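Incident review: delayed structure delivery

Summary: a single-chain prediction request sat in the queue longer than the usual turnaround. Root cause was a stuck worker, restarted by the on-call engineer. No data loss occurred. The affected request and its eventual output are reproduced below so the record is complete for anyone auditing the incident later.

Affected input:
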Amino acid sequence: MSTHKKQKRLRFDRVETVEQEDGLMRVQVTFTYLDESIQASAAAAPDETSQLKAAALATLDAIRQAADDCFTCELADLDRVNALGKDLIAVLVNIDFQGKQLQVFGSCQITTSETDAAVKAALNATNRMFELAIRTT
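Output delivered after worker restart:
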């Protein structure tokens, strides 16, 4: 069985937030796909909501890279929600794939950190499209 068949999804390794000299924050995400490390980052204002959005944006950029630009995805919205007594990060993502536009939803329960949950929510939203994109290439 090939590695491609074994690992159909990106594996989230870590997210780091670093303060820059200009006062902004840089959120960097690292994933593994097919034994290769994929990193992406996005700048954010020093407030928590901006950092969560930057984590989701960096994740979507890493997904685009891993899929060899087979589709584009754009963060439409991100919010903290409480559903069924659980705190979640929820994202809405616009996807353009083979000339078709669709909107997908993803979420992740906040367990360790909100930033980790933002990354995982973006992954949750796009995993099926990622699998479809890599199968058609």
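Verification: Residues 44 and 51 are 5 Å apart (CA to CA).
Action items: add queue-age alerting; document worker restart procedure.
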